[in-house]
Amino acid sequence: MDKFIALDETKQQKILNAALKEFAENGYEQASTNRIVKEAGIGKGMLFYYFKSKKELYDYLAEYSLDFMVKRYFNLIDASEPDFIERLKQIAEVKIKAQSENRSVFDFIGTLLLAKESDLPVSIQKKYENMQKAGNAMLYEGIDLTLFRDDVDVEKAFKLIRWSMDGYQNELLHRLEGQKLAAIDFEPYWKEFYGYLDILKKSFYKEGKRER
Amino acid sequence: MDKFIALDETKQQKILNAALKEFAENGYEQASTNRIVKEAGIGKGMLFYYFKSKKELYDYLAEYSLDFMVKRYFNLIDASEPDFIERLKQIAEVKIKAQSENRSVFDFIGTLLLAKESDLPVSIQKKYENMQKAGNAMLYEGIDLTLFRDDVDVEKAFKLIRWSMDGYQNELLHRLEGQKLAAIDFEPYWKEFYGYLDILKKSFYKEGKRER
DNA sequence: TACTTCTCGACCACCCTGGTCAACTCGAAG
DNA sequence: CTTCGAGTTGACCAGGGTGGTCGAGAAGTA
To answer: Does residue B38 reach within 7 angstroms of strand D, measured from its CB?
Structure first.
């Protein structure tokens, strides 16, 4: 595995991407090391020269992905914005950027929690839980509750707003399926997105508190 | 296949459920006829006595599921309710009932569209498209637009409301994972759900139009 | 009894699996 | 120019799973 780390960046990336994609699409059991080496353009032997087993490769990917997530996504979020919708908007921007930078990492992490109570090393499980905890904190900490209408339960408003925004993002992702995210001009989609955000503010915030 | 139809209901159900579950969980290629017969409690030979190939079984399931969907779900929806949120609420009730009646059918249909441009018989593809069209009509036809606030685009409000309700339902399904749907007392969840609906009405409808 | 219809699971040829390893390349050290 | 060892390959292995077949018997019917 130290052999792998010594490789030059581009070769590492090629192998990582091939493996992440394979695991993300097929899960651990159904993922094929043969397909990985073919996609990565290396001989079968090399994979097991770098990683002594399929499992070790998988664990390495898990750790790598979580680190990527923290470095390239979480750390770039400004958690000081007190306006809930504005904060989510900013998170969405960072997320899209990180996602087009490396889509397969996100897909892979998505499957990590599906592998229910998986036999990942405890250290990685810990890392995962911490990430979830930090993510939650970044969503709700320091939010200005006075922006919200007085006649709705704020907790529920949080959820409704999140579901709405997730809904938009999923639909968009579905609409853009197949296209290379990095090659897309997101300008019009952001406009559309902001349109929805305005409605959410009109709907869930007090009158007169809509503008910032 | 006519041999299969001649079977008594309960045996048919056992085989159907086993097959639906297997295909839903693993997709067409990865689904195993061996696991299906084991789960269904029949000998391997019988499956190919009833259906002459894996493909014929799959096509039969597709047709069966679509018919189930129409008969046990679509046809029970009252599309005359002009209040959008009330209509969605009613749809949700029917859906939950149909889903607990036969969960695997829903899961299987969910994978049908993932099998992109699959090589299903045209007749079944047609049936599927018709179902989607009818579903859309039932959502939006005859809705009373005057209920909505004047300062938001109704089309966008539609989407926001749907995303919100889908979000709740997904979260709930996720929360209840593993439990047998039919055995759950949904009372408290409906209450919670209605709570969200009230907020949606407060937020997206004109003042004074909230009650019915 | 004789004939048809059901039912089973051992069996088939084939494919793919994760992992190994003898053989080869190639640049650096002596 | 030789030697060495790290890097690299893909044929190969045993094992297991695949969709589908079929001979043999069970059950039902006349």
So the answer is: no
> From the Cβ of B45, is strand D under 7 Å away?
yes
| Contact at CB, B164 and A167, closer than 8 angstroms | yes
CATH tag, A2-204:
1.10.357.10
Q: Please report which confidence band the pLDDT of residue A20 belongs to, taking 50, 70 and 90 as the band edges.
A: very high
Give the mean model confidence (pLDDT) for residues A13-34. 97
Nearest amino-acid residue to D18, taking CA and C1': B32
Query: Residue type for B97, please?
Result: K
A163-190 in b/e form (b: 16+ CB < 10 A) is bbbbbbbeeeeeeeeeeeeeeeebeebe
* Segments making up each domain of chain A, as ranges: 2-204
A205: β partners: A148
Q: Is the dihedral of CA B212, B93, B193, A112 positive or negative?
A: negative
Mean predicted confidence (pLDDT) in B14-40: 97
Closest chain A C-alpha to B159 CA, distance in angstroms: 8
- In a mutational test of the B interface, the residue from A164, A169, A173 whose CB has the highest number of chain B CBs within 10 Å is A164
Per-residue pLDDT reduced to its tens digit, B166-182: 999 999 999 998 899 88
